[in-house]
Amino acid sequence: MELKEKVCKACRVGKLRRHEVVQKFEREGLEVRIEGIPAMVCEKCSQAYFPPGMGDKLSVAADHLFTLSEAKHAGEYRAVV
Ligand SMILES: [Zn+2]
Fold first, then answer.
1. CA distances (Å), 29 to each of 25, 32, 37, 75, 81, in order?
2. Ligand 1 center to 37 CA (angstroms)
3. 79: CA distance to ligand 1 center in Å?
4. Would you say domain 16-78 falls under CATH 3.10.20?
5. Residue 60 has pLDDT above 50, yes or no
6. What is the 48 CA–ligand 1 centroid distance (Å)?
7. Could you report the per-residue pLDDT of 13-38, keeping only the tens digit for each?
8. Rounded to whole angstroms, how far apart are CA atoms 2 and 31?
9. How far is the CA of 28 from the centre of ligand 1 (A)?
10. How much is the average pLDDT of 63-79?
11. Distance between Cα 56 and ligand 1 center (Å)
């Protein structure tokens, strides 16, 4: 599903550009990064907007990464989408 909104809702002036972003998740001292997440990013304030459902997918992915990361206390991963 395509995002139709092209102007940032946060600052109301910035235009949104398709961009890959990095999200970090922290839990109980562990940190994991997911790179290559497709999003629309404001060119003014850098507010990122994710496609519908992406937040849920990311939190599920982060849960799995935390499980994987427990052994080595750090993790860096790239989303393949
Ligand atoms: Zn903005």
1. 10, 10, 23, 12, 28
2. 19
3. 25
4. yes
5. yes
6. 9
7. 999 999 999 999 988 888 889 999 99
8. 30
9. 31
10. 71
11. 23
